[in-house]
């Protein structure tokens, strides 16, 4: 302790004097202000003018087809894009702010003249096996991977006709890790996941028919709807069943694994290898997805 005139001043090691505290506070405020400025400049520079040419698309509150509509954007209109998420654009138009599916903005989709609920959906189609993984074999040694891909591509075409955003886990004969398939769907914000496979038995020609498998309880409804839609097929409908398969277990959205016949049944394989069967399955699955997405 030392006296300075009539004042006594204590100096304690580790304590800041009042002027130093004020300096520190000013520095903190300056850094925070700079941070806000940088964020604001980033958002401003990322703004982009986009011209929507679709006849009519719905502006939604959130980046999901189940979100409430803000308004309908009719005709050619220029909007300001301020963000992006899961394939949706966050835009400002005529004083309204909301989200639109990026894949529809330059399409001929007309939301005012159709009840097509698939247009705003993102669906992942998984062709089972591929590359070094042949899958099961027919009695003539035809590989499962060949026909899961054909069926997946057929469904892709049907869904594209409905304006759906389709993501394929594979589009050619390539090896794709099991874990990466649902991971892709989860990362890209898919609404639904469909995996194609073909069943097999230890002894050939001892089983026939198709089955819709689900893992999570929230996928039961999707499996039931698709199973019902596939009733029109000539093969026996074996119904729905619980299946502990990684591709549907790890998916966070409604997901089904469709075993569309027994590949080592000569009767079933006659259908499986048919381009007409692949097309009909794709059409029926699409019809089922239309029904499911209406609810």
From TrEMBL:
> Which residue windows are transmembrane per the record?
21-41
Q: Which domain of life is it from?
A: Bacteria
Keyword set for this entry? Cell wall biogenesis/degradation, Hydrolase, Membrane, Transmembrane, Transmembrane helix
| SUPFAM superfamilies named among the record's database cross-references | Zn-dependent exopeptidases (SSF53187)
Q: Name one GO molecular function term.
A: N-acetylmuramoyl-L-alanine amidase activity
Write out the GO cellular component annotations: outer membrane-bounded periplasmic space
**Which GO terms fall under biological process for this protein?**
cell wall organization; peptidoglycan catabolic process
Instruction: Give residue ranges for domain SH3b.
Output: 47-108
Q: Which InterPro entries match?
A: MurNAc-LAA_cat, N-acetylmuramoyl_amidase_3, SH3-like_bac-type
Residue span, MurNAc-LAA domain: 182-290
Family matches, as PANTHER family = CELL WALL AMIDASE LYTH-RELATED, N-ACETYLMURAMOYL-L-ALANINE AMIDASE
List the protein's name: N-acetylmuramoyl-L-alanine amidase
């Amino acid at each position: 302790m030392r006296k300075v005139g009539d004042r006594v001043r204590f100096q304690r090691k580790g304590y800041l004097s009042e002027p130093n505290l004020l300096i520190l506070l000013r520095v903190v405020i300056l850094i925070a202000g700079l941070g806000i400025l940088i964020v604001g400049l980033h958002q401003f520079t990322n703004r982009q003018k986009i011209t929507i040419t679709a006849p009519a698309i719905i502006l939604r509150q959130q980046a999901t087809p189940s979100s409430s509509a803000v308004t309908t954007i009719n005709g050619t209109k220029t909007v300001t894009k301020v963000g992006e998420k899961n394939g949706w654009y966050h835009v400002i138009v005529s004083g309204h702010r909301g989200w639109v599916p990026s894949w529809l903005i330059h399409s001929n989709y007309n939301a005012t003249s159709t009840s097509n609920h698939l247009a705003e959906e993102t669906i992942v189609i998984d062709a089972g096996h591929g590359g070094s993984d042949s899958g099961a074999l027919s009695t003539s040694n035809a590989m499962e991977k060949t026909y899961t891909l054909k069926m997946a591509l057929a469904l892709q075409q049907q869904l594209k006709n409905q304006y759906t955003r389709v993501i394929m886990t594979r589009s050619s004969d390539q090896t794709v890790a099991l874990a990466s398939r649902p991971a892709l769907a989860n990362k890209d914000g898919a609404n639904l996941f469909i995996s194609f496979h073909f069943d097999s038995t230890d002894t050939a020609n001892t089983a026939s028919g198709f089955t819709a498998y689900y893992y999570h309880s929230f996928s039961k409804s999707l499996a039931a709807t698709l199973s019902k839609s596939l009733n029109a097929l000539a093969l026996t409908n074996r119904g729905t069943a619980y299946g502990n398969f990684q591709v549907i277990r790890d998916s966070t959205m409604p997901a089904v694994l469709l075993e569309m016949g027994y590949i080592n049944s000569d009767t079933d394989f006659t259908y499986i290898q048919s381009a007409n069967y692949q097309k009909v399955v794709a059409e029926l699955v699409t019809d089922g997805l239309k029904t499911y997405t209406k609810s």
